[in-house]
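User: structure tokens for 6-carboxyhexanoate--CoA ligase, please.
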Amino acid sequence: MYSIKMRASNEDIHISGAETMCEFDDLENYLKKYFNKAFYHENGTIDFLNLKIEKVKEPIQILRALSVIKDLDDTLEHTLEQLAKQTGVSEYALNKGFEYIKNDINYSGAIILSARTGHRLDNTGKRGIRVSNLAFKTCKRNGEISERVKDARALATCMNTFEGVKAELCVSDDLNYTTGYYASSKLGYHRIFNIKKKATRQGGRIIFVDDHIDLNQYITFLESIPKEIVDE
Ligand code: PML
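Assistant: Done. Predicted tokens:
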């Protein structure tokens, strides 16, 4: 297996990114796909593109994909509050999460907050934690849902499959993509429509965790351990 990663930016502002793990025969297709994704993105033109290929040498961990649930947008606040409550995330922490999502900083990865106090626990600054070395190999929903949702579900599965993680909130920073999600191992991947207004780059990923989580191990799991997500 090989890992292939793409990252594109303009004047150091993140525009687009993608990655997967695949067999050698699929590498060329992914190279073309990621090249096109980077150069023809609605977030704008790019002045930097990084395409990286590495052989996967460590054993791959298998993770079971979270199930997908669709929520209504007209009860947005209520829905999110309820989901937070049911997953042990305080209202204060949820609101703090939205503050990070709405501020002017464009984090390229996720931010980790205490589910109780809302304090930020990682020290990765503007970079955030990048979930890396993953592939969604046996997704039964291929064709049923978009590539974007498939990728988001894979990331959400990685972020939520670790002892001490309560939930993750995601709002896309793509200009006109207004569906976000709230995911947890307890309740699954809840898609939330109209989580933001159109024509804004505000967005981000917030992971809510127990204060006693082994943060170093969790970050190593997210960034370095090869992970394959399977749909059962
Ligand atoms: C992104 O691609 O920028 C984030 C993906 C959010 C997907 C939400 C959904 O449609 O389920």
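User: Anything notable?

Assistant: The longest strand covers residues 13-22.
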